[in-house]
Amino acid sequence: MRISVSSIVALAICIICSTACCNNDEYGYQIKNGIAVYNTPERPADQISMIGFAADPIDTVRVGFIGLGMRGPGAVERFTHIEGVRTVAICDLYPEKLEYVQKLLERGGKPRASEYSGEDGWKELCQRDDIDLIYIATPWLTHTPMAVYAMEQGKHVAVEVPAATSIDECWQLVNTAERTRRHCMMLENCVYDFFELTTLNMAQHGLFGEVIHTEGSYIHNLDPFWDEYQDNWRFEFNKAHRGDIYPTHGMGPACWALDIHRGDRMKTLVAMDTDAFNGRKLAQKRGEDSYANGDHTTTLIRTEKGKTIEIQHNVVTPRPYSRMYQVEGTEGFANKYPNQGYSIRTMGREIEGSQDGKAMFENLDGEAYVSKEMRDALMAEYQHPITREGSLVETAKKVGGHGGMDFIMDYRLIYCLRNGLPLDQDVYDAAEWSCLGELTRVSIENGNIPVAMPDFTRGGWNELDGLKLHIR
Ligand SMILES: NC(=O)c1ccc[n+]([C@@H]2O[C@H](COP(=O)([O-])OP(=O)(O)OC[C@H]3O[C@@H](n4cnc5c(N)ncnc54)[C@H](O)[C@@H]3O)[C@@H](O)[C@H]2O)c1
Question: Best substitution site from 71, 165, 188, 313 to test ligand 1's pocket, by max atoms within 8 Å of Cβ?
Answer without folding.
Answer: 71
